[in-house]
Amino acid sequence: MVDLLLEYGADVNANFTGHSLTPFHQTCSFTVLDVAVGRYNAAMTLLLLQDGAKIIDEVTLSRAIDNGGLTAWVKAGYPGAHGDDCCSEAPEVASNYDFRIVVEFLHLYGADLNQVSLHDAVEHYGSFDDGVIEHLLYLGADVHAKDSMGLSAISRAFAGELYNIQRCKAFAQLRRAYRAKLGAEDLRHSFDNALCWETFECVELVLEYGADMNSLRCAEGTCLHYMIRCVFGDNTRKEEFLKFLLNRGADVHLRDHESKTPLDHAVMFEWNMNIVKLLLDAGAKVQCKGKEGAQLLTHLIKDGLTTWFDPSTNQLQDYLNKDSWELAYPSPR
Question: What is the pLDDT of residue 118?
Fold first, then answer.
């Protein structure tokens, strides 16, 4: 049917509007080649290319990877795959689809494999078992190519819907197998993502590759500032992570871009006695004299504790060292 329509003048590069097969159902502009590629229909892909279908480097190959990854994700039965935040069903694909053949056809007709295709594959596929990553590299995808944020493909292993330690370890093999170099920004980005996912093993993995936990981020300060402001599943988990970072050399004295220490952040945002206590035990300074002590007192005063501390004494230190909030701040009777 398609070859008949093409024979009678159908425009092989015509655009039409429809909903994408991503979890967000975005409205996008498609070509017939995009549809064939997204459904992994190798025979149709080749037919359209032979009839002059144009490849859009940043769209066509990326759609093949994105849709294939989503298909694999749904078919694998990952939790939430059929939830409100995802597609209600897997993309409609050819019954005998083969990613390799589709990509080889696109590559043969000039698709640029370094227009973030490797980034997309790392983000959307759960392991090397699919053969997708290896095949892109075999065809010449550059493991050092950067995306629009200046990040390499490996940093995507620490993000995305399929985040887990096995996946991170598998994609970290790229560094060994293809001698991929991890830049400072890659490491910071991966380290922050690992913290957000509250996974000790992944944080350890990034540290093994040379992440500097005491480097300053764009806005959040060091990893301690960042972690204290992050929302964790529960306070106990957050305390465990703080101990974990402190035991590996996180510096409690470093200041962020607003000259605030992790202790400043803990007093301002946490109101968790144990978090503050851990920072103090690690050497955080809380002298109730001069500018630094006055700043901490100011934060507490703003929260209604105006009558509790005399800046000329060690009352704040004593307050923070109490075993419970009830001892330091008894409930009215």
Answer: 73
For residue 201, give every residue at least 6 positions away whose Cβ sits within 8 Å of its Cβ, in sequence order, or none: 165
Q: Which domain holds residue 96?
A: 1-110
Instruction: Tell me the pLDDT tens digit for each residue of 149-180.
Output: 777 776 676 665 445 666 666 666 666 677 77
Q: Tell me: the pLDDT tens digits for 264-308?
A: 888 776 567 788 889 988 988 876 555 556 666 566 555 544 444
DSSP sequence for 149-162: TS--GGGGGGSSTT
Q: For 97-125, give the DSSP string.
A: --HHHHHHHHHHTT--TTTTHHHHHHHH-
Report how many domains make up the chain.
2
Which CATH number fits the domain that encloses residue 26? 1.25.40
Residue 316 belongs to some domain of the structure: yes
Distances (CA, A) of 295 to 218, 257, 278, 304: 23, 16, 20, 15
Containing 274, the helix (H) or strand (E) segment is: helix 273-281
Contacts of 317 (CB under 8 A, 6+ apart): 286, 288
**Residues in the chain, how many?**
333
Let me know if residue 35 belongs to a domain: yes
Torsion region of 151: left, alpha or beta (phi above 0 gives left; psi -120 to 50 gives alpha): beta
Residue 177 lies in a domain: no
DSSP 75-86: HTT-TTTTSTTS
pTM: 0.56
For residue 19, list its beta bridge partners. Answer: 27
C-alpha to C-alpha distance for 146 and 321, rounded to whole angstroms: 48
* 237 within domain boundaries: yes
The residue ranges of DSSP E strands in the chain, in sequence order, are 15-19, 27-31
Nearest to 170 by CA among 223, 218, 225, 122: 122
